[in-house]
Amino acid sequence: MLPEPQQAEGFEKNFTPRGKPRRQEDLRLVHRDRELDAARRVSEALFQHLTPDDVAIRAVEIALEAVDAESGSILLADPLTERLIFRHSIGDSRVKVGTAIPWDRGIAGEVFHTGVPIVIRDAHADPRHYASIDEMLGHVTRDMIALPLKRWEGDPIGVFEVLNKRGGRLDDDDLAILTIVSAITAASIEQARLFQDAKLAEVARIVGDIGHDIKNLLMPLVCGAGLLEGEIKDLVANSADPSSATAKDTFQLCAEVIHMVRASSRRIQDHVAEIADCVKGLSSQPDFAPCRMADIVRSVYDTLRWQAQEQGVTLCSERLEGLPTIIADERRLFSAVYNLVNNAIPEMPAGGTVTVRGKADPPAGWILLDVADTGGGMPNEVKESLFSVRVVSRKPGGTGLGTKIVKDVIDVHHGRISVESVLGKGTTFHIQLPIVQP
User: Fold this and answer.
1) Which residues contact 202 (CB under 8 A, 6 or more apart)?
2) What is the C-alpha to C-alpha distance for residues 244 and 249, in angstroms, rounded to an integer?
3) 309 and 352 in contact (C-beta within 8 Å)?
4) CA 202 → CA 2, 197, 284, 312, 387, distances in Å?
5) Are 6 and 12 in contact (CB under 8 A)?
6) 8-state DSSP, 221
7) What are the CB-based long-range contacts (under 8 Å, 24+) for 350-355?
8) What are residue 51's phi and psi, to 5 degrees?
9) CA distances (Å), origin 119, targets 64, 305, 348, 421, 437
10) How far apart are CA 251 and CA 249, in angstroms?
């Protein structure tokens, strides 16, 4: 038996003053350091990145580094479609941005609705695992942690997922670290959104002022068009042979130009209002009434006909006359179709075509529209950013608001929109609109 002093020395060497093994205390200290480091790095990201997307991407990167995992994703909830949509995904197995899953299915769905995180050590042995994502990617999910993306208090706005720890399996210690990262990330995204909202509110105010000025500037143009119309009528009536083919053609052409000036003036004012709605959120209620897509597309083509002719682009329509009358906001649908066609015309060489095709699906209660062009297509980074706050414009000086306006219009009609594009072959937008509003 060792002398008493040596017993005391051994006791101090192998145990902490609270009686716990030194090894366990060291592990706790290491774990605490990892938590603090993750919190520090996410907090720093808050001050380095001001957009919600930048904050979210950096948070996923930090989470993967902190727990040494292969992949991570942020899914945000879309209440309109009741889906969880992959907004950001990085790592070895990236999920395509925009991929959506029902928000009441899978592990992510359970976490979103319960607000309780889940640690899965064997994903394929868990019946809640949404295996279709693995099948789509050709990837195997071994283990994962799914957390509700929310502040310390409040309802989730989405789900934070981390997959496949490189050494071992994800566990409760990793969950503790990711909980900190997730909470700070949610708060950071909210703060970034508030910052953006403040900027957009100022932009909306300025746009409102610009809209008022544009209306004042257009008034002389509209009045002048009316005076010109009266003068032309008098001129034709007093001409030597007002019934001649030349006089009739001249009068018809002038009448079309005057009609275009009047219609375009009104559309310009409407478009400024749409831009204001886009940057500050839909501010005016939709005016739902019976309308026909054939008439809307015809109005768009009448407005853009001269521009298309100058570009050498042909505007076509197919199977629109047979579509049923739908309940919709005609002004907003005009704006959506106008933006898609107007964006397509400058992207095509002479000889190109823009075609709007229609199809009805009465049993499902939808009409289906395709807006297709024969232009050069778009790269993936542009296509994946469409209809989002980070939309990218390829036009010099372009804002990208056009496609955002389209998405807002389709959403307010409880419709759906998607896009297909192949470089060198063209782009097609697929639109579904309900025949009767729910």
Assistant:
1) none
2) 9
3) no
4) 79, 9, 18, 40, 22
5) no
6) H
7) 350/311, 350/312, 350/313, 351/312, 351/313, 352/311, 352/312, 352/313, 352/314, 353/313, 353/314, 353/315, 353/316, 354/308, 354/313, 354/314, 354/315, 354/316, 355/316, 355/317, 355/318
8) -95, 150
9) 15, 59, 51, 39, 41
10) 5
Q: Judge contact between 107 and 148, C-beta under 8 A.
A: no
pLDDT at 410 over 60: yes
Across all residues in the chain, what is the average pLDDT?
76
Q: Where are the domains of the chain?
A: 198-434
Among all chains, which residue has been given the structure tokens 């768009």?
Answer: 300
Say if residue 246's pLDDT is above 60: yes
Residue 64: name the closest of 165, 134, 137 by CA: 165
- Structural contact between residues 22 and 14, judged by C-beta atoms closer than 8 angstroms: yes
Predicted model pTM: 0.48
At 202, the amino acid letter reads: E
Report CA 135 to chain centroid distance, whole Å: 25
Domain spanning 198-434: which superfamily?
Histidine kinase-like ATPase, C-terminal domain (3.30.565.10)
